[in-house]
Amino acid sequence: MAVELDMRSPDFEARFVALLGAKREAAADVDAVVAEIIADVRARGDAALAEHSLRLDRVDIVAMGVAIGAAEIDAAVAACDAEALAALELAHARVTAFHERQKPADLRFTDALGVELGWRWRPIEAVGLYVPGGAASYPSSVVMNAVPAKVAGCKRLAMVVPTPEGRINPLVLAAARIAGVDEIYRVGGAQAVAALAYGTQTIRPVAKIVGPGNAWVAAAKRRVFGAVGIDMIAGPSEVVVLADATADPRFVAADLLAQAEHDAAAQSILITDDPALARAAAAEVERQLADLPRRDIAGASWRDNGAIILAPSLEAALPLVERLAPEHLEIIARDPEALAESIVNVGAIFLGPYTPEAIGDYVGGSNHVLPTARSARFSSGLGVLDFMKRTSLLKCDARSLAALGPAAVTLGRAEALDAHARSVSIRLAAEAGR
Amino acid sequence: MAVELDMRSPDFEARFVALLGAKREAAADVDAVVAEIIADVRARGDAALAEHSLRLDRVDIVAMGVAIGAAEIDAAVAACDAEALAALELAHARVTAFHERQKPADLRFTDALGVELGWRWRPIEAVGLYVPGGAASYPSSVVMNAVPAKVAGCKRLAMVVPTPEGRINPLVLAAARIAGVDEIYRVGGAQAVAALAYGTQTIRPVAKIVGPGNAWVAAAKRRVFGAVGIDMIAGPSEVVVLADATADPRFVAADLLAQAEHDAAAQSILITDDPALARAAAAEVERQLADLPRRDIAGASWRDNGAIILAPSLEAALPLVERLAPEHLEIIARDPEALAESIVNVGAIFLGPYTPEAIGDYVGGSNHVLPTARSARFSSGLGVLDFMKRTSLLKCDARSLAALGPAAVTLGRAEALDAHARSVSIRLAAEAGR
User: Fold this and answer.
1) Which pLDDT score is estimated for A27?
2) In chain A, whose CA is at the least distance from the CA of B107?
3) Where do the catalytic residues lie (chains A, B) (predicted)?
4) Please, what are the domains in chain B?
5) Nearest-CA neighbor of A209 among B65, A201, A200, A222?
6) Pick from A378, A404, A416: CB nearest B363
7) A373-395 confidence digits (pLDDT tens)
8) Which residues of A touch B410 (CB under 8 A)?
9) Which phi and psi (to 5°) does residue B202 adopt?
10) How confident is the model at residue A26 (pLDDT cuts 50, 70, 90)?
11) Closest-CA residue in chain B for A298?
């Protein structure tokens, strides 16, 4: 059973702070091991990749080939359920349509002094996509990570996925094909991140690495950051359901459990102004847990990290939402739009009783890679801009340089950067002498 | 004297790869020390801040007050040269006007199925700005970092700046006032980064930290990443000047030295198709170095990291520019626009003979915080988007859920996430039973 908090209790603030501060994930200290693996792959390339894959994934990538080729993907696609393939195609089409709208515009303008200014956006040329193996190998995540890269125009999208004991989810390969992934390699862990960052004889290096992974992958991404770009470091997932008396407790409970089943470290929180809903939803969670396939995981998450918070009103609870800065916020209440309007710190908002978060996970169209662990305070879900970069453009002519130059000379000298000042004054003097 | 390379030499590729791979900055291994300082500030707050400041900056921040107050800023502004203040005001106005154009648009639309989708952008609520002390304490950088945050609408912009022996550049405080910085604290180093990330009794925590710093600051930013957002890890600065026979060698030399004077680790590279320009520019560099105040630094940079590359044509040299992925690219040639058009990996382009990079450093309007050390392959200069975040919005009604839901149920089951599938199917069943 989740903890129950009441905003009107005298100890509420202390208990809420404890909830906020609770460490849901033990940070394994794998940094030293990861540093060694990265150094080894940099030094020995494919040979190191093969050794670490044999040791950690018990797979002989030399015998099987590092790259997963077209014939292997064909066979995987043929092995997939037709309904699942159709659902993935629908997801791909909708996610593509949504992300097409995120393409940024270039700009070029001339200001009053005659200075030409602007910027232009270009795709990152080569991107690496990390896909976890085993239980957390989700085809939907392949679509969510690959589509914005492809919409951005990235020319080369290289995917890595570990294949423990040689096993791989065929639907992951199908998703990669549907999403237009250009290369797939059967490697995972820190060694795969190192290969993408620095290249090996077989895998050409990329400029940015995205995608979720375990503690080893996260530590490796943190280490290679700078040599390549990385996306956020993914933490355990969370949902806040903000619901009033109009909400159906069965829907609320189902949504809390959908979050909880991801991982024992996931967090599901119900905030409501209706004590009856709080009771009914809590009872429904237990009832629905009983025959849920992943009831052990979901039950542990709900017991250890779940919470039900009673508030005098949903408006009064909004500051709690801001402090939680959840990855996902569902609002199942009389006027969801009005409640959503003021909230700043949240990755995605799901409005009304007919928008379970799972729709956004799969086929809504928006991206399901969202900021976790309170990082919605400072970051956004994955999008097209994450796969592009902006170059600024500046052009003066003799006249606009004459207008702006003296101020630049002044500032260069004020900063004791005389060569800066001179690079302007030498031009002003040359023009004056013409 | 810089190295000279000729694209037509048989050993060119090897020498170019050596130039690309040269480590310009010794990475001091300060990570363990930084980890201790951060842990200490988290544990003891202001007391730890005071001790580290006394030890490292030889300044008693308890006696002076951690915060720099209005009276101290007034006094600093009064001590500034009027011409420098006016130049800063001009820089602020132009940088603000440029960045106003970067404000992103919200979107809301309803698709053919009746699903409402969209996103909205909101400013990050609290941002920390690190400003180096001592020699690299640049008022222009305060403007460049603060303006996009203010244009984004950040409510709270807290600046930290070390004051070794109590000294601070008055123009830095003036720039902070002009740029609308809300709070200023006289602390620096890893301890200041820790204070911004986790808060102390005096300094409230922020959600994101930006600004350049030394190896300790960079290591601290890397460590607190996740708890807060960070900008890029700044490396040594670089320029490529792409010039043909039309270029004035005096201008070219001045621009190479403007880059070189930053830091011995800075890198200036001239690429030209004109051997006469190569010779004349090399001679001009030596001539201009002779009476340059920072000739020791600029000379070391040019000697150790500078390069002149002869190419059969500027078009033929474009692939080299891509591989260098320079922070700054100047094009002083017959048709700079045509050459600029195809280049992807570059932070900023300065077009034509009248656009020395120093104009962009100060008063052009575009941001001078740009991706260094080849990170232009995957990242952009600082801008308004770095201080905002996007929340996605999704809303289905009963009808659009009926259309989309079955595919979500299929994918949930295919991923063995049955609670995901159920959160949709429970609604579909409830509607069907109505």
Assistant:
1) 64
2) A101
3) 327-328
4) 31-230 (3.40.50.1980), 235-378 (3.40.50.1980), 396-432 (1.20.5.1300)
5) A222
6) A404
7) 899 999 999 999 999 999 999 99
8) 83-84, 86-87
9) -100, -40
10) low
11) B419
CB contact under 8 A, B412 and A362: yes
CA distance A260 to chain B (A): 9
Whether the Cβ atoms of residue B91 and residue B143 lie closer than 8 Å to each other: yes
Asked whether the beta carbons of residue A254 and residue B422 sit closer than 8 angstroms, the reply is: yes
What is the rounded distance in angstroms from the CA atom of residue B254 to the CA atom of residue B160?
A: 33
The answer to whether B430 contacts A248, with C-beta atoms less than 8 Å apart, is yes
Tokens representing residue B117 in the block? 């989708």
Query: Which residue from A minimizes the CA distance to B128?
Result: A378
Is the Cβ of B122 closer than 8 Å to some Cβ of chain A?
yes
Residue from B183, B327, B330, B357 carrying the catalytic annotation: B327
Structure tokens belonging to residue B429: 């069943």
Asked if A196 and A229 count as a contact pair (C-beta separation under 8 A), the reply is no
Long-range CB contacts (< 8 A, 24+ apart) of B29-32?
B30/B215, B30/B216, B30/B219, B31/B219, B31/B223
Among the partner-chain residues B229, B394, B406, the one whose CB lies closest to the CB of A379 is B229
Chain B CB contacts of A424 below 8 Å: 356, 358-359
Q: Which residues contact A403 (CB under 8 A, 6 or more apart)?
A: A113, A114
pLDDT at B345: 97
Q: Which of B381, B394, B427 sits opposite A364 (nearest CB)?
A: B394
CB-based contacts of B247, cutoff 8 Å, min separation 6:
B241, B272, B274, B277, B281, B332, B333, B353
Q: Which of residues 388-407 of B touch A (CB under 8 A)?
A: 389-398, 400-401, 404-407
CB A393 within 8 A of CB B365: no
Task: Note the ipTM here.
Answer: 0.96
Each residue's pLDDT tens digit, B220-270 = 998 999 899 999 877 788 999 999 999 999 999 999 999 999 999 999 999
Could you give the residue ranges of the DSSP H alpha helices within A164-229? 170-179, 189-198, 215-224
Confidence category of residue A232, pLDDT binned at 50, 70, 90:
confident
